[in-house]
Amino acid sequence: MAKKKTMIPKYGTITLKGIQYYRTRIKDADGKEVSLYATTCEELYEKQLEARQQVEEIIFRRQHPTVAEYCEKWLLMQSAKVYASTLRGYTRDMQNYVIKPLGEMYMEEVTADDIRLALVPLSKKSEGLYNKVNMLLKCIFYAAERNQILEHNPCVGISGKGGKPAKKREALTDQQVAVLLDTVKGLPPYLFIMLGLYSGLRREEILALQWDCVFLDENTPYLSVRRAWRTEHNRPVVSTVLKTPAAKRDIPIPKCLVDCLREAKENSISDYVIADSKGEPLAASQFQRVWQYVVVRSTKPRNYYKYVNGESIKYTVTPTLGMTQKNQPKIKYTLDFDVTPHQLRHTYITNLLYAGVDPKTVQYLAGHENSKTTMDIYAKVKYNKPEELFGVVNGAFHQAIAE
Question: For this UniProt entry, which segments traverse the membrane (predicted)?
Answer without folding.
Answer: none
